Amino acid sequence: MFYSATRIRLKARRAAAPAYGLWYQRSLSLIARYGLLALFFAGWQIASTAGWLNAAVIPPLDKIFVALWNGITEGALLGDITISLQRAGLAFAAAIVVGIPLGLFMGQIRPLEQALDPILQLFRQTSALALYPIFILLLGLGETSKVFVIFWAALFPILLSTISGVKEVDGKLLEMARTFGAGRLTLFYRVIVPASVPSIFVGLRLSATTALLLLIAAEMIGANQGIGFRVMNAQYNFQIPMMFAAIFLLAFAGLLANAILVILQRRLCRWNSRNH
User: Which end of the chain is more exposed for a tag (fewer CB within 10 A), N or C?
Assistant: First the structure.
């Protein structure tokens, strides 16, 4: 009986060893990935609370999160983020609808790319914020100009990444498809488009970040709602915790958008080992 109990304990230890090793590896991975960020926030909290930083300018994180919670529960920040995401989402969707098809065709049709590339490069090198006053004169100070300036800035990462993805399709894949009798249309939909998806998603992620950045700038000019307006209004009224709370809320929205795009990319590009 003693021998049997000893064997049971040994088996339990052996079974627990792999689980402990897996837990240990995951813990090390989390520390390596988020340890520096955690130290940064801890240092921020300690420095602001201890008076090493001016708490009136850089408040402690606990006050910021209290302001964030109050702003969400009372509805002020919730309404602002809803309106901001509507603006950015509409502009981002329009950039996808225009940028991906145009990029696919420009990457395939050389004369079209040669004709459009100079003007696209000119517009790409011109800051969207520099063009914003022109958009306001043409479209007014309402929603249309705000959405359009975000669309303008978000379009080029998608367009250029799509063109690059089409051009970088492996020639051996195209040759093999032609050998098996694939026509031009089949070659486009079955080979070129799927092979371009990883590059397209790189552009989508850059475009989503650009859309959120331009959103704040657009809402700081002539808006009475939105996260950008909330940041400026809080600064003018010296509500610094609320200002930081709005900034953090926008950062969380950006992280969420990026995470969604990463998940979609992994689902659509399961064949690509670099996405795992």
Answer: N
